[in-house]
Design goal:
Length: 343
Amino acid sequence: MFDFGNANEGQRAAISAADGPVLITAGPGTGKTYTLVQRTIYLIEECGVKPESIFIATFTEKAAKELITRITNELSRRDITVNINEMYVGTFHSLCLRILKEHLEYTRLRKNYRLLDAFDQQYMVFQNIYRFRNIPEVDIILPNGGAWKQSETICSYVNNLSEEMVSPDDLIGDADTSIVAMGRILKEYREILNEGNLMDFSSIQIEAYQLLNDHPEVLNEMHSQITHIMVDEYQDTNFIQEQLVFLLAGERNNICVVGDDDQGLYRFRGATIRNILEFPQKFPSGECRIIPLVINYRSNSDIVDFYNEWMATTSGEKFKFEWENFRYDKRIIPHEKSSISSP
């Protein structure tokens, strides 16, 4: 019998929802990291899933390290001996990089390729700025000024286009000359990467996606190895990350996403709140379980009450806006009532 410890009813439901698509809507302070850790333990202890078959994508390296530490400590506490070194835990970028390294022979990259950071990327474009300046109509989209400023703009373009999986050929085929110029910039940029055996941070995910999409043997290998996928902070994922999740999941659809639609903060980095709002619609009706975590263990109860009241009063005729179109219906409950009045 699995020991759920101090988990509340919602957390227990989330921990034990082992198979199929699951959406855990975790409000602020409701113990989502604890739930992810316990769900991982549940898969290993109760369901016999091998650690190397579990794929957990987090938003930051710090969150990944915390997960690994807490999973290791919980396994030790329960006296469960397994090797979690092969478990896929990390940011999307680090996990994609691992997949690429394990299957390098299937990619455009050669041994001793170089990964560019933001400065390296901009400096590479700066060194090749003449190639971009020779593109017809490029002046329409590049700012006036020096080569360094133009290099910064080019990097911004190619990073955003890569994250959204936009093809240079599609852009070049457009009727708008500025869109055509952008497509030629992207094509030229990728040719420079190929020539130098280089990869930038923004293209890690697109390289991994192309590897899996273009080589069925690699994808089949990943499907046979990875059986359960969990994604933290799903409201902060972008288009290509969603595509990677569903590609890796295959027909099993053992995808558990955790997030809070009220905390979609990273639209400026390409994140889209639509991923979490539309997640249940990716499956046949009724197949995806939606499990809300609503008990807040972090904040003073007056803060929780203010949060609930604010969400309620900013919806309706007065604001000409309805939250129900942009969030899951929920009301956060404080773990305990504050003994002092602190509105």
